[in-house]
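Quiz preparation item.
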């Protein structure tokens, strides 16, 4: 390393040591000299012992030699201790540097060994946490690319196949042509919905998303949203109920974004609830939050999948097609819109018994 930190620490310790030794030596020499001169100037002491000049020079030389040897030994021992200590301090820093370099090259599985609980240990843990986050982000990115490619490939392949069949005369007759055009229209609609889903997801994940929040009566607004979903849930003979009492506190939201949250949750419940099942929308009020719940009697979510259902393009059943399972961004959009409101969404579920989604909004 250029301007090695270990060298800096080592030299810093040595400079402090030398400064201390020099100061102690001068101070000790000054004090001993003064005390010795005072002592030999004392008449009572000099009655018992007289010092000639040679003895005085020898005495002070011995003192200086003692100080010099003490300073030399102390410097050597302190230098060794300083080197060991600086090595101890800088070794984990070197490991962190090596790890971050490997992470920068795309090796997100690398970690720093943590064997201390001090600030350097906290630094190592922070780097490991960062590596875990980057590894998970890279995994999601790959899955996202793979899923988008798969989702786009299916309708495009179908469209290409239909057009080729029409071109080479495999599909003939007015009725066949009309039915084929209808299939082409359906596939085109699938692509359009897919693009709209991705666009919506990109919009809600924008950190600069703007909300136009006001206070709204929750019951009338929910009735209005549910009315737009009536054809979908009636088609499956689902019993959809709203359990929000009149006079319920107003909720501070962006109306359009809130509508999208409820529509996405209802669409999810409708898709995964068998015919003649039930869906209920309810609300609760506490001192700090207003919670809106969407609960169904659907197939439920496997326990292993529950932590991942709000991830982009995640499906609990990987074999589901776009027609039956959607693109897998609906719940991710819900999460993004809830975070934009400063709230949170979480799910509870049991396989075979249904799911419950709770959206918690802070009171304003």
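Solution:
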């Amino acid at each position: 390393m250029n301007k090695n930190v270990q060298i800096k620490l080592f030299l810093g310790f040595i400079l402090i040591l030398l400064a201390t030794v020099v100061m102690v030596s001068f101070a000790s020499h000054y004090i001993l000299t003064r005390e010795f001169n005072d002592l030999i100037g004392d008449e009572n002491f000099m009655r018992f012992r007289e010092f000639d000049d040679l003895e005085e020079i020898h005495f002070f030389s011995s003192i200086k030699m003692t100080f010099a040897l003490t300073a030399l030994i102390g410097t050597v021992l302190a230098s060794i201790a300083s080197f060991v200590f600086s090595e101890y301090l800088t070794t984990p820093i070197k490991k962190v540097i090596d790890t971050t370099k490997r992470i920068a090259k795309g090796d997100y599985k690398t970690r720093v060994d943590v064997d201390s609980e001090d600030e350097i240990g906290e630094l190592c843990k922070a780097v490991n946490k960062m590596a875990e986050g980057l590894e998970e982000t890279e995994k999601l990115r790959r899955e996202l690319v793979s899923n988008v490619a798969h989702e786009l490939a299916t309708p495009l392949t179908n469209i290409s196949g239909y057009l080729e069949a029409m071109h080479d005369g495999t599909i003939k007759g007015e009725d066949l042509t009309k039915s084929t055009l209808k299939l082409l229209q359906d596939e085109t609609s699938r692509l359009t919905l897919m693009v709209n889903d991705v666009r919506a997801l990109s919009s809600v994940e924008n950190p600069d998303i703007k909300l136009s929040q006001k206070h709204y009566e929750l019951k009338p607004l929910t009735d209005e949203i549910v009315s737009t979903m009536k054809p979908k849930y009636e088609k499956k003979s689902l019993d959809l109920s709203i359990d929000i009492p009149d006079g319920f506190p107003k909720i501070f939201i962006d109306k359009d974004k809130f509508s999208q949250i409820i529509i996405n949750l209802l669409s999810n419940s409708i898709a995964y609830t068998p015919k003649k099942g039930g869906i209920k929308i309810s609300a609760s009020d506490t001192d700090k939050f207003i919670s809106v719940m969407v609960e169904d009697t659907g197939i439920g979510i496997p326990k292993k999948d529950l932590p991942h259902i709000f991830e982009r393009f995640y499906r609990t059943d990987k074999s589901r097609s776009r027609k039956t399972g959607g693109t897998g961004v609906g719940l991710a959009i819900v999460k993004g819109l809830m975070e934009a409101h400063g709230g949170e969404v979480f799910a509870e579920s049991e396989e075979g018994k249904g799911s419950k989604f709770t959206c918690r909004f802070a009171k304003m």
